[in-house]
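Moderator note: this is an archived Q&A kept for reference. The question asked for a predicted structure of one protein chain; the sequence and the answer are reproduced below.
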Amino acid sequence: MDYRRTFRAAAVTFVDLVSRVPAERWDAPGLGEWTLRELVAHTAGSALRQVPDVLGARAETAAVTSPEAYWTFARSVPPSVYAEAVAASTVLARQAAGELGDHPADLIGELAGRATQALAAAGDDDVVSTPVGGMRVRDWLPTRTFELVVHGLDVAAAAGVEAAFPPDAVSEATALAARVAAALGDGPAVLFALTGRAPLPKGFSVL
């Protein structure tokens, strides 16, 4: 699966999705304590806005060697550190929400364009500095596609519109979630759920 193509496709789909959010839904509930506007701002920040900065910041060594290791990193830090990171993410989402303006899709489109241009100039094996340490571009970018697809589906659900992410992008995100589950020791539970043998525990998440 071409990680570059799935990222670009997910980015284009996310821009289109944002353009179809009804005006009256922007301040409605989005996800958890976030409004829909804050959810969109968070997604744009984490999956699009930071891409040029990360791709432009080289690291000496790849400390994190797979997309699933990026997501399991959060489980390895003290709970207090994780809680601080979540709180900071909420603050940033609320600040960024105010920058979306009256036509959020215009800004999201600009961010998507910058992200894809930066990706085009990066090599697969370039080692870049990410929030969890040095990673190869080919390992880090799928985590951004994951953000676009998962939060894109959140946006669609909150806005009451259809999300039409390409099958390859959805497949990549789903497979990554399964690999995260396996890395955390929850692979059998997820496999049983996907094959109809047993439901997942209430509140289960790989994140």
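Archived answer notes: The chain has eight helices and four strands.
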